[in-house]
Amino acid sequence: MTVVRFLLYLISFGLPKKNVVIFNSYKNTKFSFIAKNIFLHGIMNGKVNYKFVINDEKLRNCLIDTYGDYFITSTNIKDCYTICTAKFWVTSTSPVYKFPFCNIFRKVINVWHGIPLKNIGVLDYEVSAYKSFLYKTVYRTFYTYFMVPSPSLGEVYKNSFCIGDDKVVYSGLIQPHIVTKENIKDKLGAISKDVKVILYATTWRSYDTDYFPFADFNLEKLNNYLVERDYIILIKPHHLEKSSVERFRCSNIIIVDDSYINDISHIFNSVDLLVTDYSSIYFDYLMTSDPYIIFVPYDLDKYKYERGFNMDYEYVTPGPKVKTLNDFCNEIDCFFSGRSLYKEKVEYIRVNYCGSEYNMIDKFNELIS
């Protein structure tokens, strides 16, 4: 089938391109990341020429039932023809087909999937020599444009993906609330309307994540604290996380996965506080109306050595770094009592890294006009 797709791709060079926008995400199987949000914004505003590639048949049929006939595969001949004759390909990871110079006679736009706090691309310490070679020789030919949140991040993207200034478009980050406003409290069911929801989302590690790495940690004590104050902690492990977090499940600590929350950014506006470590999700959360973040960088030196950072972690993380359970609880109380000390730093990061002065949807529409 790969040979058939490639032959169709070659034949399509001589065919006129249609005003169709093809979206895809992780391995053509996930409905996720920024590509998803731009796609949803489009179809909600009458874009009938948008198509999203989902090769998972069960998920594709579910999405068709939910949103309509916008979803295709990259495997059958009819859909391959639609993809190969489309004027625009949009991805949050890599193109729907990884063919060299696939941006000839079409625009291929990478919108990525968050600000890369950690090293990515050729800068990733864990990337193989072979994949690094592909980045430098083949992958760099894929894209017409690479959407970058702000000028402060230009060099990071250029160095990571071996692209030049001519491919970089500064765009800001998409604000999730313009796509959907899921209320996590509705999903949780019978809870108080006044309950405060604390989202705990972590990055992926090659080793098990320790969610509460405190010498004074006591699960019963933490849960009692949450019950007394009417707080709930919602733990959302990374989708590649293999270690079990079930040991933390109790009345006011809830564990959820991708089947429960497909896109974590869609619940941001019903979350009162974010807890994280090195996950770039916090940059997206900074685009909400009143963001506050508690950081738990318990293995900072180890993680920095094994993965590396594109920027100074301490400088770009506007929030307290906690080391004990008492600190953790005190910082939660500090925020909910209105004693936030990080508003100026938050605004600085929003402007200089998240590109809050840009409008990503407007920039994207310019690229496909």
TrEMBL record:
UniProt keyword annotation of Calcium present: no
Keyword Secreted annotated: no
SUPFAM superfamilies reported in the protein's UniProt record: UDP-Glycosyltransferase/glycogen phosphorylase
Keyword set, alphabetical order: Cell membrane, Membrane, Teichoic acid biosynthesis, Transferase
Gene3D superfamilies listed in its UniProt record: 3.40.50.11820, 3.40.50.12580
Top-rank taxon, per record: Bacteria
Membrane topology: Peripheral membrane protein
Pfam families: Glyphos_transf
Subcellular localization, as worded in the UniProt entry: Cell membrane
Sequence similarity: Belongs to the CDP-glycerol glycerophosphotransferase family.
Protein name according to UniProt: CDP-glycerol glycerophosphotransferase family protein
Originating organism: Buttiauxella selenatireducens
